[in-house]
Amino acid sequence: MGFVKEFKEFAFKGNVLDLAVGVIIGAAFGKIVSSLVEDVITPLILNPALKAAGAENISKLTWNGVAYGNFISAVISFLCIAMVLFWIIKGANKISKKEAPAPAGPTEDQKLLTEIRDLLKNKNTL
User: Fold this and answer.
1) pLDDT by residue (tens digit) across 34-49?
2) H-type helices in the chain, by residue range?
3) Nearest CA to 40 among 8, 82, 78, 81?
């Protein structure tokens, strides 16, 4: 019974459940970002740029039998996804940014110590 109880305590701790929720939400968010890149950014920005460069179907590029077009396509997709995530995180940070509270003035003890320090300075300079 010790093993079952120990496993139950581990499996239902807040950290494990938070991690599970994070993984599920992360997977769903990944689909959103992928759709944004594949369905919006690629047709609007990337396809016209590839047509202008004369490389409409980049994934079919080969050189001496090596299909390097798929690799270039994967790199471009990664860069697009990274840029979208950067914009999303930057926007989220701007929204959730809290202003720092104004620093509190000196306490009574600090004021008294400052006065004592100033008096000692004046006494030593005389």
Assistant:
1) 888 788 877 777 778 7
2) 2-11, 14-35, 47-53, 69-96, 108-125
3) 81
Nearest C-alpha neighbor of 32 from the set 76, 73, 94, 88 = 88
64 has pLDDT over 70: yes
Tokens of 74: 């994967």
In tens, the pLDDT along 68-111 reads 877 887 887 788 888 888 888 888 888 887 766 777 888 888 88
For the purposes of burial, counting CB atoms within 10 Å of the CB of 37, is it exposed (0-12), middle (13-18) or buried (19 or more)?
buried
Residue 33: CB atoms within 10 A of its CB come to 15
The residue to which tokens 């620093």 are assigned: 103
Instruction: Match 């030593």 to its residue by tokens.
Output: 124
pTM above 0.90, yes or no: no
What single-letter DSSP state applies at residue 66?
B
Q: Does residue 63 sit in helix, strand or coil?
A: strand
State the Cα–Cα distance between residues 38 and 93, nearest whole angstrom.
Answer: 25
Residue with tokens 């010790």: 2
